[in-house]
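Deliverable D4.2, example record:
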Amino acid sequence: MTDTTPTLQAQQVMDAMSDDMEIVTSVYRDGQDGDIPVILLHAFPLDHRMWGRCAQELVRISEENHEDFPVLAPDMPGSGMSPVPDAELSGEQNDDGSYKQACDRLAVSYVLAVQDMGYSKAVWVGISMGGYVALAIQRLFPEMVAGLVLCDTRAERDTAEGYANRLNVARQALLAHSVEPVMHFARPQEDDSDFKKSDEYIATFTDWIDQQSPAGIAWRENMAAGRQDETGTLATITAPATLISGQLDRFSGPDVMRNMVPLMSGANPAFYEIKDAGHFSCFEKPTEVAQAIEDTVRRVVTLGKGNQPEGNQPEGNQVKEES
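Output generated by the structure prediction step:
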């Protein structure tokens, strides 16, 4: 493992690991030592490809603004090209199948993968389940966080109903050796966004979910079920931060994510409500989300030059609705 400067809690996690998890990362724009990359952490039950449209827009927008930062998107273990971790790498399981420390071990593995590429800090962008891991990185490796963007996610653990549902999805995926338990993500409902109801969305998400492994689906659900509550982590964020919420998101909509703003007083985050977008805002509205990410990167650069970032203004100036 690469040397790092972890918190005591992170060191304890690392000491319990025999190795870090294998992470395969896709590069949308490369960089060099000393750069601050943008790391795009994807949602469940997909892989890095859900970020593709947004990543391309982020590269385009930043090039128009004469910015040149790396843009990377790792596959979460059990998705895309990243294999499902074995029992030793995953750590102890509870009797119900949830992993006690897998989320923290994944956070360690992401950090080590980024450090192995030569970067000492990053702007971490996590959507949904990716947001859970981004917050774990903030708790374990705050010095690795140059900026933080949380999309369509929550800081608290699952409700009892949500927890039970995760475990049930994991069991059904393994028992039936099928991805059908999560295929509902490709089947829009009446109150979903226009794009989510399009043939393009349905065909793309159906194809991507079909390509996931049932074992990977189960591992990610059991990992997320056992994650820590990160509500207290929000107060530790001091880097430039942004919250993005799809207006139609039924899981972590604007009413949920706005509650995080006062808990992040050290970051004074910008807030974007993306109109006509649901839980997968970066895929449904890639340009709008890319613009919000690029704005965060500019605030990181400004802060690095010793100036006050524009985005860190009184709360009334931060709520930005993107149509």
